[in-house]
Amino acid sequence: MDGTQIMKEDDKKEKAEEEVVHLRREIGLLPAACFIIGTVVGSGIFIAPKGVLINSGSVGLSLLVWALCGVLSLFGALCYAELGTSFTKSGGHYTYLLETLGPLPAFLRLWVEFLFIRPAVASYVSLAFGRYVVEPFFAPCAAPTVLIKLVSILGLTFVVAVNCWSVTWASRTQITLTFVKMFALVLIIVPGVIALAKGQTENFQNGFEVDSLTLDRLPLAFYNGLYAYGGWFYLNFVTEEVINPNRNIPLAIICSMVTVTVCYVLVNVAYYTMMTPAELLLSDAVAVVSGLASVIPFLVALSCLGALNGGFFGSPRMLFVGAREGHWPPIFSMIHIRRHTPLPAVLLLYPLVVVMLITGEIYQLINFASFARWFFIALATLGMLIHRYRFPLHPRPFKVPLVIAVTFTVVCFFIVGLSLYSDPWNTGRSCALTLTGVPVYYVTVYRFRLPHRWRRIFSKNGPAYNCLHFFTKNRPT
């Protein structure tokens, strides 16, 4: 009788666990790789070559910058592969900072993601989508700004609806758009390679002229290149939904980043084969293949849509995990009971992005986002190294070589420090906005560390409770 009763209780526990609403593991190797490629390849490869060439000063050096940016991004992605297999929770940057450096850096990363990083990046990509859809119909005249913003909002709404409806549909959308954007890159690469094979190499002669190169502008070339590679970390936001993450996360990261790096370098070779450097600086890069000028903008628009879909698929998971850990309002840790999507977290970002689209004041926020993003990436990989030293026996199914981890961390901190030197105004404001999360953290999350007089003000019966209870957790961290 006792054995039978125990078996019945075990069956009940198993059924109860199956009935618990949670994010399901539905992302295999191909969707994972397409998720990374589809998020990385957006508008950057069609916009950034101009900035890389201006700041590098020569064709050869600009190609070297593109290759080095790809290698650096691969190093970072490998570090995140170790973090993703060591800490198998979703949330990306937030989770890794929480596990390695503690709750305050993790909360600050969550704070800046909500405050300006994700809304600014999503607004920029949405506007790029609207611009590439609308402008071909009005060429050579300027397209109406209102129409561009309207189409941008429609594209944004489509992406939000798909991510609210189903994880499977969001994944299938990403796979489809990834193949479309890779097709767009092939349409640019093939004519350039054919022309190069026929001996059209005039633009590569004296490719490493350094007369116009200045060391203070070279980091800006890397900024432009790294912007085009941005998004390699988004798979770590959805670790809990990846099938067999210990195998698929490292494989997806390595395959996707090698593919993107090779494609980016070949695309730039095609640019310089078909155009002189002066023509590239004066014209739109997407029109490099004259015979396909009418097709490329449409494919680029779909490419932007894929990058937007990847961002909205990944970032809400950070808010979801933050709410689950008590660092964000509990409502954002809820999952739709039938669709198994983090619906409140997805919907939270939608009005913020729409407001930025309408106001149009997002380009300075992009500069803010770059500083904050790289600073916290550097902190995450530094935390990985510290965690290795403190807990050498912690299971690490994938372990990146130490030289790669150290190199990437040092370069990231160098980029952040150099940005403070070269652009103190924008990076200083970004730093100030990030630090605004410190008092918010201590008031809403870590109240028992406040002075006794302040704790009375923010206690349940205090005057500030009604203003802050929405962000209050039930237990201290």
Automatic annotation (TrEMBL):
It is a multi-pass membrane protein. Keywords: Membrane, Transmembrane, Transmembrane helix. InterPro entries: AA/rel_permease1 (IPR002293), AminoAcid_Transporter (IPR050598). The chain crosses the membrane at residues 27-47, 59-81, 115-134, 146-167, 179-197, 217-237, 249-273, 285-308, 341-359, 365-386, 398-421, 427-448. It holds the Pfam family AA_permease_2. The keyword Amino-acid biosynthesis does not apply. It is found in: Membrane. One of its GO terms (cellular component) is membrane. GO terms for molecular function: L-amino acid transmembrane transporter activity. This is Si:ch73-352p4.8. It comes from Sander lucioperca. The lineage of its organism: Eukaryota, Metazoa, Chordata, Craniata, Vertebrata.
